[in-house]
Amino acid sequence: MPQNRSATSNGGVIALILVGGAVATGVAALFMTVRSYASPAMLGFRTSPAYFLIACLFAGLVVGTAVLPARPRGPLAPIAAGLSAYVAMEVGGRIGVILGLMLSAQAWPSGSFLTAVLKPAFGRYQAYELLALVVAAGLAGLRVLTAKTGGASQPWDAGAPGGPFGAPGGPPMPGRPPFPGRPGQPPSYRPPYPGPGQGPVPGGPQGPPPPHGGA
């Protein structure tokens, strides 16, 4: 009988997504710290949209990969993973900007700067952050599909030697008992019996012996 592997509970899926979101927040903060650091090294690339999109891609991959060990069901995993990746970019990006300024100026930023950084806004870079949402939701959705199609597994069933799995048992070898068939079934091998109109089995009983001196 096929055995269905149980799906991961919603609590387990959410826990994995939260762990992935925390790691993705750190990844985004690292990218934005490097981007905001005052240095002429690779300044054009660090401040380009391509660099920001790479950070979004990595954040989405981290959150989506966190769902892969689970066996989620339904739309919860893709929705939660996408939102977690977007929030990770929002929070991690702001942390990275603040850390980059602190490392560059070697001082705590002013209150006005913190207010400007932490103020919610939606612009071009917030639209770029949707890439993290799409990547994380796509990986989680793909995991839902693979868990749905590969949920059944066949148990191992040994048959007769030399035959396919689950085949009936074969005849015994000399000095050995008959090979078993499926579990719970008797061996399929039976000694031969004579059919209608046939003589006794060779080597079987032949009746009483003739009297002494008889033909």
Automatic annotation (TrEMBL):
* Source species, domain of life: Bacteria
UniProt keywords (A-Z) are: Membrane, Transmembrane, Transmembrane helix
Q: Where is this region: Disordered?
A: 153-215
Compositionally biased tracts (Pro residues): 169-215
Q: Decide whether keyword Membrane is in the record.
A: yes
- Transmembrane region positions? 12-38, 50-68, 80-105, 125-145
Q: What is this protein called?
A: Uncharacterized protein
Q: Which organism is it from?
A: Actinomadura coerulea
